[in-house]
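Recall the central idea of this unit: under ordinary conditions, the amino acid sequence of a chain determines the structure it adopts. In this exercise we apply that idea directly, starting from the sequence alone.
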Amino acid sequence: MGMKTTVSERTTEQLSSLAKEAGMNYDMLAKALSVSRRSISGWLSGQEPERINRVRINEFGRLVGELSTIIKPEKLKSWWNQPVANFAGSTPLQVLERGETDRIWRMIWETREGNSGD
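Accordingly, the structure predicted from this sequence is:
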């Protein structure tokens, strides 16, 4: 019968599939979401994220979904830690840690549109 999934179970599932899809371990995921590794552990063990973090998780899910349309999933794993010229030599993970998600969205858009960024 339809066992009702609790919100925390959904969060746990969402985090583990997000980490997998992004090719990240939980330490990287914590950095990408600008939260502590301890927060991630808490959520994985059933604690409910605060609303702001719920939003971050969902936003990051959308970002990863879009990235995987322009970067092969097997390449995404190493991409996070490679310096990108567009990001003035920062890695995508560093850009996320600084909360500059819009720079990654812009890169996605430019790649899609075939713009070089000028």
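The longest helix spans residues 51-70.
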